[in-house]
Amino acid sequence: MAGTSLGARFYRQIKRHPGLIPMIGFIGLGMGSATLYLLRLALRSPDVCWDRKNNPEPWNRLSPNDQYKFLAVSTDYKKLKKDRPDF
Q: Superkingdom of this entry's organism (predicted)?
């Protein structure tokens, strides 16, 4: 078993224990979902500033009806009015 590759050993374990297939699938699904959510936070959140020269304060460029939360249960962002001054 010293000369076999990691993929071959993994395939042999899966073939020997088929009950591992759902567990590996759910772990992969969870890791993929977490990665996509972190990418969404890094790219779409107004709290993250990647370009400080051209846009030093990205949270000031949001209009009141921009939905930046992932899930808004009771807030309808289309009906909000601007209640803050321009800077």
A: Eukaryota
Task: Delimit the domains of the chain by residue range.
Answer: 1-44, 50-86
Predicted TM-score of the model (pTM): 0.56
Nearest in space to 76 (alpha carbons), one of 58, 64, 61: 64
Beta-carbon-side half-sphere exposure of residue 16 (alpha carbons within 13 Å): 6
Specify burial of residue 25 (Cβ count, 10 A radius: 0-12, 13-18, 19+): exposed
Cα 40 from Cα 36, distance rounded (Å):
6
HSE-CB of 52 using CA atoms within 13 angstroms: 0
What are the two backbone dihedrals, phi and then psi, of residue 55, each rounded to the nearest 5 degrees?
Answer: -145, 80
> Average pLDDT of 18-30?
94
Contact 72, 55 (CB under 8 A): no
Q: Give the SS3 label for residue 55.
A: coil
